[in-house]
Specification:
With 363 residues, the chain is mainly α. The chain contains 13 helices and 4 strands. The protein has a two-stranded antiparallel ribbon. A two-stranded antiparallel sheet has the order 3-4. α3 crosses α9 and α12 packs antiparallel against α13. The longest helix has 32 residues. The relative contact order is 0.18. The C terminus is likely disordered.
Length: 363
């Protein structure tokens, strides 16, 4: 299979590393996360990275839902998420946890919370705290990054339903996206925020973060649906960057982010004259990096103390996180991905008139 002509693997890996960097501030008790403090107040670096993940996911998953029957699609989605997650949960809860718990070994393995954490492999039962582990750290979360996976999985389950009812057509997708944007703009009037996330749509999927993530997800889906009409140009990308820089403060500026950030993501992913074929060389390390970064960072803080600060924590955590991500990709994720479609090949038209390429990595 020829390497796909895009930078999606590189963008996702950078986004996963940005999550790691952003988490280094609260994990060391330093509150002034630089993206939130200095980059116009749009979001934290981790928040921008998560929005990037959902944008690319909407693009790739919409294509998958349109091209495959429901069984093939759902099987593909499950094989993409569950094997890597299951191994991560087992290793962190049953290998890492015992080294850092304040409980005796016997009590640790008898604690129901340990096994509840392992059962997070079912995605909608994920827990982020294990009693007795990292209790002396500024934050006691065991793996605080996992909260996004139930939201992602919920979107995966909705897509074949939309496809079955013919709602993945371009006009309908545009209307759905506009409706979600209107809902997101209304969240302050509804009293919704990160401090008040609202009720649960389904288990582990709070209303406020689900609405925000759904906006980026559906915008990514629209980029797929309108791929033949959207032109990715340097001038438009530069305009998006300038608009982001000068947009006035206030909740409405999030609309600017929702429009401009996805355009910049797809410009970097599909329109640059060069492509980093990470999937062909080192592999797609983004998922493994996202899964393992938080517990690795917590372990570093537990060993060296929160006084190391966010920069040193980032420097110490990146190498072991990438090593674990390499192992996750080559030993777990890639073997399952190879099985999901029987390595079937197909051609995918590229957005904005770029040259066609075989399967875009990460579908």
């Amino acid at each position: 299979m020829a390497a796909p002509r895009n930078n999606f693997d590189a963008i996702r890996l950078l986004a996963a590393l940005l999550v790691l960097f952003s988490h280094s501030y609260p994990l060391t008790g330093v509150g002034a996360e630089p993206f939130a403090a200095r980059w116009g107040g749009y979001d934290t670096g981790g928040g921008l990275a998560v929005s990037t993940f959902f944008t690319l996911s909407g693009f790739l998953v919409c294509r998958s839902a349109q091209r495959h029957d429901s069984w093939t699609y759902l099987r593909s989605r499950a094989l993409r998420i569950v094997p890597g997650l299951a191994v991560c949960l087992v290793l962190t809860a049953l290998v890492l946890g015992p080294f850092f718990t304040s409980l005796p070994a016997g009590r640790y393995f008898q604690d129901p919370a340990v096994w509840e954490h392992v059962l997070g492999l079912f995605v909608f039962s994920i827990t982020t705290v294990i009693p007795g582990v990292f209790g002396g750290n500024p934050l006691n979360y065991f793996n605080g990054s996992l909260w996004t996976l139930p939201i992602e999985a919920a979107f995966y389950l909705v897509m074949p339903l939309l496809a079955a009812f013919g709602l993945l057509r371009r006009g309908v997708l545009a209307l759905l996206t506009a409706a979600l944007l209107a809902c997101y703009l209304a969240t302050p009037a509804w009293g919704l925020s990160w401090d008040n996330q609202g009720g649960l749509l389904v288990r582990m999927v709070p209303l406020f973060p689900a609405i925000k993530a759904a906006c980026f997800f559906l915008i990514g889906a629209c980029f797929w649906a309108f791929r033949e009409e959207i032109q990715l140009s340097p001038g438009a990308a530069a305009s998006c960057a300038i608009i982001l820089a000068i947009a006035p403060a206030g909740h409405a500026r999030m609309v600017v982010l929702l429009v401009c950030l996805p355009y910049l993501i797809f410009y970097a992913g599909l329109a640059l004259p060069w492509a980093l074929h990470l999937g062909k060389t080192i592999g797609d390390l983004s998922y493994g990096t996202y899964l393992y970064a938080f517990p690795v960072q917590q372990a570093v803080v537990a060993l060296l103390g929160a006084g190391i600060g966010p920069i040193l924590l980032t420097a110490c955590a990146v190498p072991p996180t990438l090593l674990l991500a390499l192992g996750s990709w080559w030993l777990v994720e890639k073997p399952f991905l190879r099985a999901r479609h029987g390595m079937r090949r197909y051609k995918a038209p590229a957005i904005g008139g770029a040259a066609p390429a075989e399967r875009v990595a990460g579908e």
